[in-house]
Amino acid sequence: MYETNYHRASSIDDAVAQFAKGTDSKFLSGGQTLLPVMKQRLAAPSDVIDVAKIKDMIGIDVSGDTVTIKAATPHYDVAQSDAVKKAIPALSSLASEIGDPAVRYRGTIGGSLANNDPAADYPAAVLALGATIKTNKRSIAAEDFFKGLFSTALEDGEIITAVSFPVPAKAGYAKFPNPASRFALTGVFVAKTKAGDVRVAATGASQSGVMRVGPIEQALKANWAASALDSVTIAASGLLADIHGSADYRANLVKVMGQRAVTAAG
Amino acid sequence: MGVEGIGARVVRKEDRRFITGQGRYVDDVKMVGMSYAHFIRSPHAHAKVKGINSTEAMKMPGVIAVLTGQQIVDDKVGNLICGWAITSKDGSPMKMGAWPAMAPETVRFVGQAVAVVIAETKNQAKDAAEAVVVDYEELPAAADVRAAIKSGAPQLHPEAPGNIVYDWHIGDEAAVGDAFSKAANVVTLELTNNRLVPNAMEPRAAVAHYDQAEEHYTLYTTSQNPHVARLVLSAFYNIAPEHKLRVIAPDVGGGFGSKIYIYPEEMVALWASKKVNRPVKWTGDRSEAFLTDAHGRDHASKAEMAFDKDNKILGLRVKTHANFGAYMSLFSSAVPTYLYATLLSGQYVIPAIYAEVIGVYTNTTPVDAYRGAGRPEASYLLERMMETAARQLKVDPTELRKKNFINQFPYQTPVIMAYDIGDFHASIDAAMKAIDYAGFPARKAKAKADGKLRGIGVSCYIEACGIAPSKAVGSLGAGVGLWESAEIRVNPVGTIEVLTGSHSHGQGHETTFCQIIAERLGVPISQVSIVHGDTDKVQFGMGTYGSRSIAVGGAAIVKAMEKVEAKAKKIAAHALEASESDIVIENGEFKVTGTDKAIALPMVALAAYTAHNLPDGMEPGLKETAFYDPTNFTFPAGAYICELEVDPGTGKTSFVNFVAADDFGRLINPMIVEGQVHGGLAQGIGQALLEGAVYDDTGQLVTASFMDYTMPRADDLPSFQLSHTTTLCPGNPLGVKGCGEAGAIGASAAVINAITDAIGNNKLEMPATPDRVWHAIHG
Ligand SMILES: Cc1cc2nc3c(=O)[nH]c(=O)nc-3n(C[C@H](O)[C@H](O)[C@H](O)COP(=O)(O)OP(=O)(O)OC[C@H]3O[C@@H](n4cnc5c(N)ncnc54)[C@H](O)[C@@H]3O)c2cc1C
């Protein structure tokens, strides 16, 4: 690791101010992505602004039809939260499948979304549920937030403060883990909104990051049942291919995981 | 059997310090004035090193030196050696290129060191390494065997035209031709044995210290065989003479073969400690381990087996290309020859065998012995062949095996090995019973109704362990003898130290070896210490690999004990005024048989050291040494059966059951044996389902971290059902065969046979990832 200046921010404003002072600052939340990269000397921030202890950034709030998860809330808390389990069980179950216990105790939803790893789990939920990403400056719709591999709509120094999820009528997530990293080789999140709309997002599959899956959405709109996807074909073009899965294999997984997600959603 | 003697499930003595974090590993060693080494490694698979500029680096804080490959050459440090000479078919010796510890001119794999920075701290060394400018001229690379043997392929070493190290053969080609001409059926099979990265939990490390006053070197290193390291470092690398070099391998966190070899980093640390006149520490990180620890396996083979009309095997023909990587590592040449092709008879009567092995250089990390070393490759080939044959001949795979089993011992195979003893029917019967083989068709039908593809796969392995009779291996080209030594020191108070040339890096010697003493003397194991891993304490030894520690090292302990007991009996007889032949040893006492006269071990020991009243002419003291050279290999064997289910939607495999019935001869500590089998099975299953080192066409290692290289985790593995059948090894005084490698040797074929059975397609390579299995199902 290169030498860096560490600051523990006391508030969101303090974090933003500290960030501005450094020449090449980075926010640090759970550190599960940033620290390994720094240890390998692949990142060299001048200043690291720790947001994980800011009180206003930790916690889960369910009110009416909205679940709000503050950005520095660790995956473990989301997985354990009775309120989330009740309102959007698919979301707590997704959180319970991220990494291993050590990762879940530290890693946070804000860090995961800001990082936008194409194989991360949360982006599928955020996109399928039509969540809103709250920052210190604005609210960003899920549609507008993810901009391809490891890139987002966040501006330099903009900090995610919370994510709010509309409570769906039904939702389910099915993840096929990469055998090595256990990130999603492909994960599919299906949701039926209270208004009756169907939104489906797949992570791990596309070359441009998390994506909506039109053919599955249409099939489920017509018939919310796993069997409705039997005749759906997912095109392999534009999908990721690596030693763990070819594009046609991932295309198959989008469909099969889609079916299992519908079954999980009930 | 006493409570702590042979056969007792004694809890491991060493585990208290390991579990409480008090193990002492190389990286725990700190010395006054210690400096830190960081290597500068090639990012290219093949390149000329045109120049190394360290001017800026030398100005950076804390930098003590930047040393290069040219300086290693100038100081006449020897090139790395390969210790087993193999002769090609045409009688020519193997063709090897030079491997300098740091490359002065040409780099041939990603990760090869070209220079080292020595600095006051590790971070300063890393910072300065980034400021060293290496001018590379990239050359085309041959990243796999197929690419390397093509005409016009990039050439790695001028000494090895066509990148061929050797073209070796064994067996009787004419007899095999004859067998095939008479065959009623011929079964053919092509397969690869995937390359593996050993990934011991503790990365390699070295702390080297040169004492200017004494002109003496000390090297703490992660070694499975510190004496071999000392021998090689002095006799071949000319870094320090043997009597001025102490090599210490303290607690070592796993080896699996990868810590047999004396690597460039350890050599450079030792050499550099004199150059900078400071202790030098190098601790590899996981990325360096992936790139530089010797990899394992990597064979591509074609095999044909001939059967008569009664399904008896007539002959076997095998052609294997073995990938050695960019350089010939210490024992690499022996692995795909004498440790592989000599096991191709398996558990079967195969009247004629002919095998050709072509060793090939590629621009990849060097390949050498890894848990099983050659024997997993042989077992995988043969056991997939038996299953393939059974399917083609439409007979039950267990029946086909039983029909061809060797039943008479000793049995001379057509490929050197002479099996001393075994009972292959006993192990397959035990495994079939344990898994309820007969009930499988019903279980398969039920799984089918649930939408799952269920399969069962058998693997009957045999291995040659207890490596090895020195004369035999010498005649086959080995540069060393493979005996073992032991020294027993009975202290004046009756406590005992056993000095052994075996090295424990997870095997539990500190417990097992004590149990041998406890069995013989009837003393508690707390009264016995095992001393190992230090060339200043133990006079010589050949180390631990090839499941040799108990069969060879344990036998040496027995031999030394026999001498100790003989002398002790003389002393006891003298003290008790009895005849020596009437003395028996029981519960730590020397007794006159049939009387109540006895003298306890501490009194005998004290008598030996006070020497006030010893038999006339007897030397004082109670300490004996033995060197034990085995007369044959040992032949652990067994049957593994795996039952699993495949999810046709995703290609994912889930285990239903895995049973292992092994014959290891006498078990000293069944609990430790089970642990060894569990670990071996994990590695064998890992190879079958999860692990595989992948290079891209340019020679970059794609699986260079755990993000892409799938190490087996506990939840990837089934709960194993183990059992043992026993034939005692007649070749050593303990009747033991060794158990360290069996799991890794036998497991992979059982898994692949089960998957191919489940999916009804025999074309499947390891690792059988969900992606591969899904494609095999859906075409
Ligand atoms: C072994 C392992 C396994 C894993 N497995 C999975 C898995 O299965 N599925 C999965 O989805 N993920 C997985 N992860 C990633 C994990 O979920 C991380 O927690 C997550 O990617 C990053 O969150 P973090 O809080 O650790 O962020 P950090 O590492 O602290 O930060 C990541 C990035 O986000 C930025 N950032 C952090 N917080 C904010 C904020 N509030 N506003 C703006 N920018 C911010 C940082 O500057 C940095 O660039 C795994 C990680 C590890 C180490």
Blueprint (SSEs and pairs):
The complex is a heterodimer of chains A (266) and B (779).
Chain A: E1 5-8, H1 12-21, E2 25-28, H2 34-39, E3 47-50, E4 60-63, E5 66-70, H3 75-80, H4 82-87, H5 89-96, H6 101-106, H7 109-115, H8 122-129, E6 132-135, E7 139-141, H9 142-145, E8 160-166, E9 170-177, E10 184-192, E11 198-203, E12 211-212, H10 214-222, H11 247-265
Parallel strand pairs in A: 1-3, 2-3
Antiparallel strand pairs in A: 4-5, 5-8, 6-7, 6-8, 9-10, 10-11, 11-12
Chain B: H1 15-19, E1 35-41, E2 47-53, H2 55-58, E3 63-68, H3 69-74, E4 106-107, E5 113-119, H4 122-131, E6 133-138, H5 145-149, E7 164-171, H6 173-181, E8 185-193, E9 205-211, E10 216-221, H7 226-235, E11 245-248, H8 264-275, E12 280-283, H9 286-292, E13 299-307, E14 313-325, E15 352-361, H10 375-393, H11 397-404, E16 411-412, E17 418-419, H12 424-435, H13 440-449, E18 453-462, H14 470-475, E19 484-490, E20 496-500, H15 509-521, E21 528-531, H16 549-576, E22 583-586, E23 589-592, E24 598-600, H17 601-610, E25 623-628, E26 637-647, E27 652-663, H18 670-690, E28 720-724, H19 742-759, H20 770-778
Parallel strand pairs in B: 1-12, 10-11, 14-15, 20-21, 27-28
Antiparallel strand pairs in B: 1-5, 2-4, 2-6, 3-5, 7-15, 8-13, 9-10, 9-12, 13-14, 16-17, 18-26, 19-20, 19-25, 22-23, 23-24, 26-27
Helix pairs in contact in B: 10-19, 15-16, 16-17, 18-19
Bound molecules: flavin-adenine dinucleotide.
